[in-house]
Amino acid sequence: MIRFEALEPAKENSTRNSILDWAVQRVVEHVDREAELLTTLEGISKGSREKITWDRVMNWSMTHNQETFAQKAPVLFLLITTVAVSQRQRRKLEAKSVAASKDDDDSDKSSDEDVGMPWMQRLLAESKRDPWMGSTVAISILLYFRYRYASLFAIMIGVFLFSCNANREIFTFTSRIGLSVAYSTTLTTLRTLADDSAMFLKGLGAALEHGPLNFLLLFDNVNKNRRAWQQSLLDQDVMNSGTAATLVLLENLLPGALDMTRVLANRRSKARSALTVTKLLDDIDWKHIDKIGSATVVRTWIRSVPSLAHFRSDIETHFSTSLARHRLQTRKSRIYSMRTTNIDKSTSIGANDVLRNLIFDQLNISAHWLKSFVLFCGDQLSIDRLRKLMRYTAKGDTPSSNYNWVLPVIQLWHLKYNWQKTVIQRHWWDESGRGVYGLAHDARHIRREKFNPTKCDFYPAHHLLEDRFDAMVLHALRLICEEKSEIVTPKSIPLIDGLDTYFKPDGLMSSTSFEQLLTFGDIVNRRYMVNAAYEDALGHIERDIEVYGSPADMSMPSNDVSQPIQIGSKSKKKSKRSKAATAETRNISSGDQCLANDISFLRTTMWYLEICAAIAEGDIGRVFEVIKILRFSFWGTGSTNYGNEMLELACNFIYEFTPELVTAIFENYLVNTSNLEGHWFELDLLQEHFNFWIKRLFNSKSHDFDSRHLAECEFGSSKRSYTHSDPEKIADINRLGAHYREHDILQYVTARNQPYQVHAVTL
């Protein structure tokens, strides 16, 4: 028993000190009993032979432990928090508490929202530290010193440090002070969790014996370059290729949706042979596309012009009701990562090994259970290898020797990315000169010279397309406002400020209703985003005054034709993809080639932005309305791989799949990890995020893709949010707007040529 010295050394044998010593000993005994009680609780300790599971990990809560300490060990918690909170802070808290209780007594209107002591939250936010959480951590560390199996908190910290690629020295230090378990214990824990994940996956597979299949499988390659520390003949740099997979439980599955009988019968009857170009053209709903184009333009106006912001709810309702096609009900997707392997899925043999590993090894499914389709999702390469594998094994007699039960479903993020690169590269012209306009010129104008159109990184390319599209449609709105009001905005006024002046309460167009805005959107769509507008810009036919209004008196002088200036004298290596046409094939009619190129840009970019918006909003039907157009566009732009996949989808949806199967695919084409509206995204993008973390762990921990703890674990620690915040783009849009005004962009100028021609998608 620890003996405490008297508080007053000069009077060691005084009665006061003896009483204090007795009281302290009683407190110590009580704290000892409380600590012993805490070591037996489930949320703090685990049994000596008990294996930790993902349920324990995912259900562990710091807040729950804090409440447990305060309720089960009040004296211990009081002692620790007394050290953490000074007497001055306690007086402030008591004063706040008394004031809050008086306010509650005086007020007759009390609600559940007031129970949470907002003054306490403000105080904690101001201090930027939580003394109660710190006290909870301190007690958890002390309990781990007291009892080696009171380690749940230390295990959580160990797994968290591992997922953050913490250095071994950090593990050594934190385990020494009881903050985490040792590195070796962390690896053992992860292997135990891997076994728990494996048992869960096998349980999902075993359910197939007695019931219908209820999951889809998503897989993608994961590559990482392992560099040799000191290269030699026996130790060289190696590119490790593996496969990462994810299982997603299906939602809203209709009875018999995955039945193979009717689909296989349609395949054997070669029903797809009836597909014609006319059938594909008739499948496109151009009225819907025109409405989407108009609404996308109006949404941009409302988002960018402050005085139109009050229409935001109207435009969102318009998209979610009038323009909705197959909108998914908001939910939280149930997602489970599977074991990574060293299998290279880029070949048909590798695809075969991946399928057998996922179905027969990880899910432990017997071949004779495979009586319905299994959805396999991936990018274009993965789906192509699956189709080839199915053709190679079509004559097999059993489910283990043929793959009739495999249903490949190409995913949307890589498709969207491919179309984004197509738009960029078709409209990019590197040469500069007097009167040369276009995407490359505008990118340089807003100081984005470092953008690489060949590599075409996704997010910089997305923002470039979006910003140029926004600036153009805002400039188009300015032209309409000037046409309607017959007042031209001075060039000195920035684009957005000028538009805000038109629509503010005392502006010339302040009475504009939402329906009138949609009408303006229809005008922009007809003038700049349909095939007829492209043909009109070429000048082969007379421009319709009812569509374009009275023609402006603008023409290009004969001695002011665009003269490109070559950048550099050395020849550059050409990309295999066709970009823009050469100068010899440009328009030489009396039309406006600059306007025609801009119309092509607005039209194709609108399709891309609609895919992005529809995916985020969870309307898969709107996505496929655009895909119906891309069935032609991918072929026309040289993306034959995706063009072939689009035709395959057309054959599937029009001639082979049952309505129940189509609904099942649509209902599970996207995932939502947050159960929030507007937070849907593609399955292959989900896998790309998982691959990022797998590569990060693989790179730092020097393991291969078959390592057990890397293979079957999905860390359950608190996830940090990596959101892509949109920077302020007003300056970029205003700069482009001034440029468009100065050079008559989106206005018809007779005989204005360009050194390149972007051929429109003519349907």
Automatic annotation (TrEMBL):
Polar residues bias: start-end ranges: 556-568
InterPro entries named among the record's database cross-references: DUF6589
Stretches the record annotates as Disordered: 555-583
Biased composition (Basic residues): 570-579
Domain DUF6589: 271-711
Name of protein: DUF6589 domain-containing protein
Organism expressing this protein natively: Lentinula raphanica
